[in-house]
Every structure is written in C-alpha cells, then in structure tokens.
Amino acid sequence: MAEKIEIEKASSSSQDLICPLCLDIFDEPTILTCGHTFCRKCLKKYDLTHQDIDHMVCPLCREITKLSANRVDDLRLNASINGCVDDYHAKCGGMNAVLELRQKCTACKLQQDAVSFCRTCNNYICDKCLQPHQYMTMFEDHEIISVEDVIEGKVSIGHQFEKCSIHKQENKDMFCDDCKVRVCLRCVVVGHKVHNIKNQSDFEHELRRKVTALGQQCAAKKAELEKNIQNIEEQRHEVHAAMQKLLDDVRQAYSIKVKELEGNLQDLIEQINELKRSFEDDLNILKSKDRQRIKSICSSITLVDNDRLGHLETDSLSAHNLLCDELDTMLKEVTDRTTAEVITKKAQEKRFNPADATCLDLGKISEPIDHTSTVATTEKTQKRLNPADKSFLDLGSISGSDPKLEIMKCIDLRGGMAGMASYSHTSVAIVYGIYTPGIDIIDTAGGTKRYTNIPHDVGYKDIVFQRDSALCVSTGSTEAHVYSPNGSRKATINVGWTGYYILTLNTSPSNEILIANGANKVSIYDSPGSTLKHTVPTKHMTWQVSSTRSGLIVTSSCDYINPSVVTVYDRDGNAGESLQAPKDVYLYATVDEQDRVYVASVDCKNRKVVIRLYDLDGLNLKERVEFKALDMTLGWDWCYLVSLSPDLLAFACNKKLYFIKVSL
Fold it and tell me: Exposure of 42 by Cβ count < 10 A (0-12 exposed, 13-18 middle, 19+ buried)?
C-alpha cells in the first residue's frame, strides 16, 4: 500500500516537472527572466530561429530575456526545479528506469507489465487478465491488440485518459486553457468554473489541426523563401550585367577621352613649334639687318681709307668726303640691343595655363593674363554613365536620379507630439506629454503599438533608444531616467533648472546620452547615465542635439529663439559658422549614418517646410542639395526631424507624422 502511495505521489508531482515545449520531464531546467522554465536543449532549439536578435521572447508570456554572447548557455539553471527532477528520478528508479518503464496493466491491481490492449475495455491487460479475455464467452467480442504492435506503431489505440489524482475514479478528459492542465469533470466544477474549458479530445484535435496548418505554412514559407532566394540570384545576375555595362561604358568613355587628350597634345605641340619658328624668323631678321650694316660699314671704310687719298682729284676728294660723312652717320646710329631681348622676353612670357582639374583640354598658349576657371555641372541621370563634355577631363559620374524628397506616409497622431526618436530603420517612438501620456511605436506602414516596458501613464517630454535596446526618457526640464530593455530603472540623471519645461535627448554613435534643455550647453553622459563625461558650451540656447560618428555635436536652437540657428561644435566647444534662419522661420537638424546633416526649415506662418542636405566641412556645413518644399500640415512651431536610414527621414509636428523617402 505504501509503495502504491509513493507511485501515485511521483505520478502527481511529475506533472509539475513537465517542460511546456517538449512535454517531457525537464532536462537541465533553465529559467528565463520572466520565471518560466524550459529544458535547456528545448531553448537552444527554439533560439536557432532567432539568431538575428540579442534577446529571447518567452514562448508562454512573450516577455523578453536579454541574451549574452553565449546565448542560452549563459542562462542560469532553475535550482529548485532541478532538485525536484533529481528527486523524481530517484523515486522512480532514475532516468533510465523511467525511459525503460513498460506500460502496466490497468485492468487489475497487480501492476504487472501489460502484454495486450483491449479496445473494448479500453484497458491495458497483463498475462492473467488476457486469459479470461481469450477463454471466457463474455469477452469473446472484445478486440485484443498486442502491446508490441502498439509500441512499434503498427496499431493506434487512440487517446487514453489518465485518472485524476484527486478524484480517483474520474478521467482527466478535460483541458483548462487558462491553467494549461488536464482536469476531470469534478475538478472543473470545484476549481475551474470560470475558466476556458475544452474537451481534451477536441483540444488535441484542434492542436493537431493547428500543428498541421503550421506545418503547411512552414512548407509554403520555405518554398516562398527558396523561390525568393532563386529570384535574388537572378537579380544578382542582372546586377552584375548592369555593372558590367557601366564598366564597359566607363572604359569606352575613357578610350574616347584619351584620344581627345592625345589630339589636344598634338595641337599644343604644333602651336609651340609654330611660335618657335616665328621667334626664329624675328631673330634671323635682326641678325640679317646687323650683318648688312657691318657689310656697309666695311665697304665704306675701305673706300675712304685708301692709299691714293693724297693723289685724288678735286671731285674724288668731294666724293670721299661725302663717304666719310655717311660713314660717320652710320657709326653714330644707335645699335639695336633691345629688340632681340624683347623677342626673348616675349618668348619667356609665353605661359602654359593648365586647365582646371576637371577639364580635358590640357590648356592653351597665351600671354600672362588673369585666368578664371570655369566650373561645370554634371547632370545626374538614373544609374548610368554620364559622359562629360568634350572639354572635361572627368569621365563622368555614376549616380541616382535627381535629388528629391517624397512623402511616403502621413499618419495622424493620437495627441500633440512632445518628442520623437528612431526605434528601428523603419519606425519611430513618439511621446505625447501629460495630456495623452505614453509612448507609441509607429512604422512606415502606419502600424502603431504602445510601448509598455516602462510606466506608460506618464507624460514624457522626450525619448531615445540606445544600441542595446535600453532607453532614456525625460519627464520634465531637469530629470531623465535610464531603463534597461526589460523595463527596470537603471539610473536617474539630474540636470540644472533653466526655467523651461522640456528636456530633450539623443545618443552618439558611441552610445553616450546627449541632453539639452534650453541652456547654453550640451551635457554628455556615459551609456549607463551615471557619469557626466563632457559639457560642451554653446553660443546659443540649445533645444535639440545630434552627434556624428567622429563626435562632433550638431545643435538646433529650434523655435524658442529668433533668429533660429544650427551650429556644429567639437567636444571643446569650438564652433563653425552657424546656419541662420529668417525671422519666424525655425531650423531642426538631424545627422544620418553617413554623417550627412539634414536641416528642416519650418515656416509655420506660410505653412511651408523646406529640407536641405549639408556635408560637413570641418566645423562648417556645406550645402549640397535644397529639396523642393513639402506640402505638410503644421500645427505649431515645435517639430522633430529624425534620420532612420540613409534614404528615410521622419518628420513630426503637433499631431502629424510624416515618413519621407530620400532619393539622391
């Protein structure tokens, strides 16, 4: 009798030692943050399909458990459950005994191994119970099945109900969907009246249908993904073909430009040779003139200086006198020593003016004059090679379509927006303030869900998510709270009072927390929020702030200050030249993953928003593109601009949220 009681106790207690995933006795029971326990091997198998995320969602309650680098291996064992499992195995003869335990006879009290199953009695039967079934006429219509056939799966005997451990005569033929346990009818009446109760056979049938449907869905999804993989490979081939065409176009353009350069070189060489010949001719003329003068002088002196001068007649003397006067005049003529030097100077002053770096033309030969280079603009076309003009050295460029912004989705918010932050590459987190408290996560498809990991009945002022899914929220002008992903508060940050009611937040690429609250400074805290690392002084009252990968700080004075400015600072407080808006126009800035700066110019009076794209030039902003004005509904001046990805922006103002596609 005592042995029977112990067996019943072991059977009853084993129900608390069943893994919800494999429905078997726990093997290395591993506990999640929520308190639910599963076999470690079951969790590892479950985690195989979630390797792309750094956490695990509990299969029962959906609460998140943060995973380390070793994932499931670093989760702790449930020591109490593990001890109970050990006790259970000890009472039942150990794990091997449980696994090797044969079905016992359910038709008698001898608890001998069953050798057959009677479909009519719905009982397992031992050797002794089998004999009356074989020889007594009252059992002649009973259908007997060998237990070996059942074990080998040759014959199915259907579901066998377990006896209730409390109401011994009742079968556990019901399933409580609330408690996730099997119960008998009397248990339902006593303890599960208001619960969702299902007939166990119906529940198992429903579960089988669900499993079958999931299996079919898995097969369909697998086929879909395989087809998608095939399509990806086909698209890869198309991409390679398109890139090869681009390469061929570039090489063809290069070949053409090289020929043009060679032709230009030959033209320049010919010009130089022509100049050389011209200067040679000028010098030869000068040389010839001087030689002619030498010849004339020599001839004259020969005639004048003559031994017969003393015997000349009067006429001859007159002629010689005339020659002497001419010779004297010739000798008094100034020798031209400058013309050749002038020619030399002209030759030396000839300059080669190299063309600008973008020009194909090597240049031209000219007098030394002021030279102003010409700046050319290459028109962008959609993913094709743009051959440069014939005068350009630049082979061309590969680029997208004309730069533009396109509003993908406009979403009505449930209240007035107080703050906004990036939640993922396709969604944002919106906080509303005290009148419509809480946090909404909104994606580009318009899907909205409440963020409930932290208190959601609070009027927050701003929010920012860190890379590890931790978040920081501000509740006023002086205080911000840092929460872990599971919702536990890690730290509280206190910032000095400035007289204003809002405190705005952001993060740097190194996971620092950036804080601004209208003061002439930006406060930078470490990731946990426990240490103030830097205080960057600013020239203007700062309301919103962003950070680049190199640590530069981009500040916006937003809508409280006239004029509104955007300024770039380094960590020492050195500033570049500020962008300044006209009166009653307010600027809001954001930095994308490539350190490009977008600035929204908001003119509520004229209901106009213009967004410009800037490149960083040291601490200055160099405008690249001014996009066309966007048609938006503006409720007030307080707005937010956030970069979600290099080609997606989010803009919020009052009760409107816009997702904006960027094409460059």
Answer: buried
Tell me the Cα Rg of the chain: 47
Q: What is the distance between the alpha carbons of residues 171 and 271, in angstroms, rounded to a whole number?
A: 111
Helices (H), 77-144: 79-91, 94-100, 127-135
2-161 sits in which CATH class? alpha beta
Is it the case that residue 7 has pLDDT exceeding 50? Answer: no
Distance CA 31, CA 44 (A): 13
pLDDT digits (tens, 9 = 90+) for 126-176: 988 888 888 888 888 888 888 887 776 676 665 555 667 777 677 777 788
Which of the four pLDDT bands, split at 50, 70 and 90, describes residue 361? low
More confident residue, 605 or 377: 605
How far is the first Cα of the chain from the last one, in angstroms, to the nearest whole number?
A: 84
Counting Cα atoms < 13 Å in the Cβ hemisphere of 233 gives: 5
pTM over 0.70: no
Question: Mean pLDDT for the chain?
Answer: 79
Identify any residues that bridge with 113 across adjacent strands, giving them in sequence order. Answer: 104
Cα separation, 521 vs 627, in Å, equals 31
Helix, strand, or coil (residue 330): helix
Q: Residue 322 and residue 318: Cα distance in Å, rounded?
A: 6
Say how far apart CA 347 and CA 306 lie, in whole Å. Answer: 46
Top pLDDT among 561 and 549 is at 549
Question: What residues have CB less than 8 Å from 661, skipping those under 6 apart?
Answer: 405, 406, 407, 408, 647, 648
Q: Are 566 and 578 contacting, i.e. CB atoms less than 8 angstroms apart?
A: yes
Cis (ω within 30 of 0) for the bond into 20? no
As a CATH number, domain 404-663 is: 2.120.10.30
Sketch the domain layout of the chain as residue ranges: 2-161, 205-366, 404-663
